[in-house]
């Protein structure tokens, strides 16, 4: 279950405070504004992440979130800014929300067209600049909770 995965990830993050750089807790009103701007309803575990951290750098990983009201004039690691930017620059589909950049041309996204058993978006890959017909949207994680747990575990190994 994804919320259990998120809670385990949060425990690891809190136990390794020296690796943490975050934006702090985000107000629900900003999370709601971000959802409206992107036209999606974030899954619960991503809302918890935003409420707990805003956005997060944990060691060398940078997980995109929400931390600034002025989405248009923000930057990395702002998920809203990154998503709006990709939609404008490469016509990324509206059903994707960027949460991580591998640095190798691959973006990891909440995919609101590919839902898990709990009706939450799976985490899929997107390669900016490639035509939509060439995108495989490979499922990398069943949920945001599974994604963040795997990422933080890998970072502390």
Description of the structure:
InterPro entries: Knr4/Smi1-like_dom, Knr4/Smi1-like_sf. Pfam families: SUKH_5. It comes from Listeria riparia FSL S10-1204. This is Cell wall assembly/cell proliferation coordinating protein. Residues 19-150 form the Knr4/Smi1-like domain. With 157 residues, the chain is an alpha+beta fold. It has a single domain, classed as 3-Layer(aba) Sandwich (SMI1/KNR4-like). It is 38% helix and 22% strand. The chain has five helices and seven strands. It has helices at residues 2-15, 28-38, 44-53, 79-90, 144-156, and strands at 20-22, 56-58, 61-63, 96-101, 106-115, 121-127, 139-141. It has a four-stranded antiparallel beta sheet with strand order 4-5-6-7. The protein has a three-stranded antiparallel beta sheet with strand order 1-2-3, covered by helices on one side. β5 (106-115) and β6 form a beta hairpin. α1 runs parallel beside α3. The longest helix has 14 residues, at 2-15. It is globular and about 45 Å long. The model has no long low-confidence stretch (mean pLDDT 93).
